Amino acid sequence: MMMRLMAGMVLGAIAGLLATRALRMRTSFRLVGATRPLGAMITGAIVGLLFASPLLYAPRSELVIPVRSVEQLKTAIAREPVVLVDFYADWCGPCLAMKSVITKLADHYEGRIKVLAVNVDENAEITQRWKVQSIPDIRVYKNGKLEKMNQGYRPFKSYCEELDLLLKE
Fold first, then answer.
1. CB under 8 Å to 52, separation ≥6 — which residues?
2. Taking the model in full, what pTM does it have?
3. Is the separation of the CB atoms in 140 and 162 below 8 Å?
4. How far apart are CA 85 and CA 65, in angstroms?
């Protein structure tokens, strides 16, 4: 976390120095403090810090596990108490919108549910076996049994309500 902040500040300071050189050639356009190298570094560091801080709280996509085989999906559904499976495609607009929701869910329920992602273009066999008709198709399994099936975009809060109820049971 601290590394991202430092990286943002350093990159911002470097960008500020580079902007100083560019601005010296154009005297009609000036940024606050950007005409002197130290001022440019400080301004750049502040801007870099502002851009880096949202990254600190961004959901971690490594918690969403990509599924590569039928066996991997079957095993996860059978072994894990609660599993959320996202069937998606990279070209699908609603799927791209759902990606941030799915990632937030994985982050929010870390350790309590397993979140899997199946790319329907790369996994035709899984798509056929699970009879995926349209995407995004989000399915929630509890103890190996299908509990919820949602198609299309839905907001984060609606999934939280459903998952909280499943986890309480």
1. 4, 5, 7, 8, 9
2. 0.65
3. yes
4. 9
> Which stretches of the chain are DSSP H helices?
2-25, 37-56, 70-79, 93-108, 124-129, 156-168
Q: Which fold has domain 61-168?
A: Glutaredoxin (3.40.30)
* 67 phi and psi angles, rounded to 5 deg: -95, 130
pLDDT, tens digit, for every residue of 134-167? Answer: 999 999 999 999 999 999 999 999 999 999 999 9
pLDDT band, residue 55 (cuts 50/70/90): very low
Q: Left (φ > 0), alpha (ψ -120 to 50) or beta: where does 153 sit?
A: beta
The per-residue b/e assignment along 8-36, b for 16 or more CB within 10 angstroms, e otherwise, is: bbebbbebbbebbeebeeeeeeeeebbee
Among all residues, which ones are annotated catalytic? Answer: 92, 95
Region 47-71 average pLDDT? 66
Domain layout of the chain by residue ranges: 2-56, 61-168
